């Protein structure tokens, strides 16, 4: 990913000017690092990451529009990211998304240098970017899951936010899921299974290998051929329901 | 001490409860017993009055034989022996009474006729005593549940006190971390400003530290705290943070719980301004109206902002503290209209006469 000059191209994302200033200053003593862009919010970060393709991103977590995790989700999981935040509560989640490091504000110069070392190792391929065992540990240690209440999606360099209440259904399409909301289809690079686990099971149900439906939208279930059914949504859309999906749907409706 | 005997009112109610029993005994002595109505009435009133007190003694065996713990044989033997003793005593008293009244006009021959009723009297005595045992167990369980309730109340009061103390002493640590990071940035770019921010932060911290011991402060003082807080945040957020204030002069002397406004303003910064790319405003109003202090904090916010952790904890705390302190006299309302969030509180005006 490095440019021909061998420089590491860096992007800083933080909504506070003074917070960006600290990182900028720490970077200034490293001629091999080239600051290509500063962003003050998540939308800018997504756009600039797509346009400029930086090698390393210093990413604040709590920001307007999109938080740091949503930004990372949209720009792709294979980015080299160092999270920078005042909150130590996100550390576990940061390692789940394979961040290089996690810097706490106020940032110490020594910690910054060690994070940078790790970043260089990762960028030069010495450090595996594959999931560390710590990620599995973190996953196991995670408190009861909080379900998604909004799904950010990207189309080119623009970002849409879909509140889960407005999601009608999701359909698996190869490596993507198509999220249908208010008559529009948004494609997102995610597996339908990972979307299923992130959604509240009392509101969304996997009715078919390829479909998750918002239960509030289901008007009726009709038989369709042998052992199969269709779910009719309030907009008139019909979704196939598998036998297992039908059993789950029945169990839910009988409750 | 027996609970019935601790209050005259309880004792009177208890004795009143015996009136129908005395009526029943009168009927038993007169109709199947063969006494005249005058004899039956006199004897049963005296006997019931005495027996009412004898039955109070059932309290002690009941206390010693708790329903949940005592074994069945012990339970039955205790109370049956008690019943036989009490009733035997009662019959003995009846006999003495019969003898004493035998010489009074209208009661001639009472002694003999009454002695014929002794089996009836004994049976009634046993039943009445057992009734008293039942009554005392009810009394015991009522007392026990009242004790439990009192303990729960006490525990919740203690817990609330502890929570308040903790809350007063606490400043959101992330506010500190972020401020320190800002100072860290300023040390090289703008040293005088870094120093100014240190002073402002110190000022804010010193003010909050002193609040731990106080149960109420003047609104004036709380406003100074809010100003110290905003002065620090203003350096962090720069032009993104705008503040408007309209506070009536006469409201400034009203007493409020410490850290009433600061969490509301902090909430407005963290969930409002901090989530807006171009920043936003916070409006603070305070006025006195009809003996109530009315405070409104409004701020601009992004309804589609990413969800934040701890959202609403600061507000819930203020609401709880207001409720704990003023009960129904205080109100706390939050509302969101479009991109404007509003917290309106109202509490009784209290003015402190002497300076603390």
Describe what this molecule looks like in 3D.
The complex is a heterodimer of chains A (255) and B (356). Chain A has 8 helices and 15 strands. With 255 residues, chain A is α/β, with parallel strands linked by helices. Chain A has 2 domains: 8-140, Rossmann fold (3-Layer(aba) Sandwich); 150-254, OB fold (Dihydrolipoamide Acetyltransferase, E2P) (Beta Barrel), CATH 2.40.50.1020. Chain A has a 5-stranded parallel beta sheet, sandwiched between helices. In chain A, a hairpin with a 5-residue loop joins strand 13 and strand 14. In chain A, helix 2 (42-52) runs parallel beside helix 3 (68-75). The N and C termini of chain A lie far apart (53 Å). Mean pLDDT of chain A is 85; it is low at 131-144. Chain B has 356 residues and is α+β, with helices and mostly antiparallel strands. Chain B folds into 2 domains: 8-163, no CATH class; 170-348, Histidine kinase-like ATPase, C-terminal domain (Heat Shock Protein 90, 2-Layer Sandwich), CATH 3.30.565.10. Chain B has 11 helices and 7 strands. Chain B has a 5-stranded mixed beta sheet, with helices on one face. The mean pLDDT of chain B is 86. Chains A and B meet through helix 1 of A and helix 7 and helix 9 of B.
**Average pLDDT rating of chain B:** 86
Order of helices and strands of chain B: HHHHHHHHEHEEHEEHEE
Order of helices and strands of chain A: EHEHEHEHEHHEEEEEHEEEEEH
CATH topology heading of the largest domain in chain B: Heat Shock Protein 90
Q: pLDDT below 50 for ≥5 consecutive residues: which ranges of chain A?
A: 131-144
At CATH level 2, the architecture of the largest domain in chain B is 2-Layer Sandwich
The proportion of residues in beta strands of chain A is 25-35%
CATH superfamily descriptor of the largest domain in chain B: Histidine kinase-like ATPase, C-terminal domain
Class from helix and strand fractions of chain B:
alpha+beta
Low-confidence stretches of chain B: none
The main sheet of chain A comes to: 5 strands, parallel
In the CATH scheme, what's the topology name of the largest domain in chain A? Answer: Rossmann fold
Number of helical elements of chain A: 8
